[in-house]
Design a protein that fits this description.
Elements (H helix, E strand, L loop, with lengths): L1 E5 L2 E3 L5 E3 L4 E6 L4 H5 L6 E10 L2 H12 L11 E4 L4 E3 L2 E4 L12 H5 L4 E6 L7 H7 L2 E4 L5 H5 L2 E8 L9 E16 L6 H16 L1
Parallel strand pairs: 4-5, 5-6, 6-9, 9-10
Antiparallel strand pairs: 1-4, 2-3, 5-12, 7-8, 10-12, 11-12
Length: 211
């Protein structure tokens, strides 16, 4: 499902305006289709509604193990969104749910994308050298601002389920129902373009010119 708006301006909790410089903002609902994410380009803003799953290091390792064994996962991954997050949960209510540094999961990501079902990954700070992997598996990386653990709670409407509790609260897979979760910036699109890599290249070029 897609809803594209041109030159949209939204406001954050402090009342400051958030304007997408590319002029494109997408409101998507899960499960995501390939056509949903194929239209996204690096720098676009995205808001997600529907079901998302948290997953950190241990969850990624277990998901890969299940895949290697051809064992079905206990949760639905078709068109799903994975959120790099180790939430704080109390009585099945979210207390904090900020993004975890995504680069920790870089080496584990190709393994969990092999199923071809995961359409988007939300995290913080980018993921190195995954442009080709995202392109091959039709997945996008969406960057969420760090330090917003409490703010994220306002967009999480409920905790629907939890899987692999034996991994501990932070490492278990939590199923959230979210509404207009964002703003998220497209960091890697399905063409393999990497916004973080582009910034590094530009910064390096400027640095070399002033040395």
């Amino acid at each position: 499902m897609r809803n594209e708006e041109e030159n949209i301006i939204t406001k954050n909790k402090t009342g400051n305006e958030i304007k997408n410089k590319t002029g494109k903002t997408y409101k998507l609902s899960t499960p995501l289709s390939v056509s949903d994410i194929n239209q996204l380009k690096t720098g676009d803003l995205v808001y997600i509604s529907g079901k998302i799953y948290t997953a950190r290091d241990e969850a990624h390792i277990r998901m890969k193990e299940y895949g290697d064994l051809k064992k079905p996962l206990p949760f639905e991954t078709k068109g799903c969104v994975v959120y790099h997050c180790g939430p704080v949960i109390k009585d099945m209510k979210v207390v904090a749910a900020g993004p975890t540094t995504s680069d920790r999961m870089t080496n584990l990501t190709p393994g969990i994308l092999k199923s071809g079902n995961i359409r988007a990954i939300i995290g913080k700070g980018g993921m190195k050298n995954l442009g080709d992997v995202m392109k091959e598996n039709k997945c996008v990386y969406l960057s969420y601002t760090g330090g917003c653990a409490a703010l994220a709670c306002d967009m999480i409407k409920s905790v629907s389920n939890v899987f692999w509790e034996d991994l501990g609260m932070a490492e278990a897979v939590w199923e959230f129902e979210v509404e207009t979760f964002g703003p998220l910036i497209v960091g890697i699109d399905t063409c393999g373009n990497d916004l973080f890599l582009e910034v590094i290249k530009k910064a390096t070029k400027v640095y070399e010119s002033i040395k």
